[in-house]
Amino acid sequence: MQTPSYPHLCKAFGPYETNCYIVQTPQGELIIDPGMGSAPWVLESAPNPLAILITHGHFDHIYDVARIHEALPDLPIYCPSADAFMMESDCFDTGLTPCAPSVLVECKKGRAELDIQSERVTYLHFPGHTPGCSIVIVGDKIYSGDFIFKRSIGRYDFPYSSVEDMRESLQRFQALDMPNLEIFPGHGDSTHLKYEQDNVALWLSRM
Known about the structure:
Shape: globular
Strand content: 25-35%
Number of strands: 14
Radius of gyration: 16 Å
Oligomer: single chain
Helix content: 10-25%
């Protein structure tokens, strides 16, 4: 069975230019990481939303979840279970309105396969940047949050980060046996899987 290729909308929001994605599937839209100020754009651009997908719990990726939830209270919110506490409280004192996720994704440094209204969504858990940090695969695209960027990786010196977990996650990422999918990160431009796998040795040598 051929992997589907879905178009998406992308717009950067907030002082950290955090990318919010709206994946346009035949069933409806999947909203990924709605950051600060993104709610009006999301509500206007997603006429048939299926779910909100959170890659990790940092405030710049979840800031407008509560606003979207207020407008669409029945819309499910998927979040890695280890980062749920970041959605349930303003633990970084940023002015975030807490909004608990409705579905906890338990990856355990592995893979979680989800069926969201007949759309297949895969979470791969790569902790280090945060305890629940994950990449999300929809169709033939990877949405990497703050784990992998173009020619860079996520920081691992924040509260709740772990250099040990990041090192192990990078090693598992390097070993992924997958087609050379395009990667769309939480900040900046897109890249490709094989290219970033080739860069892992450099980052490991600097940790």
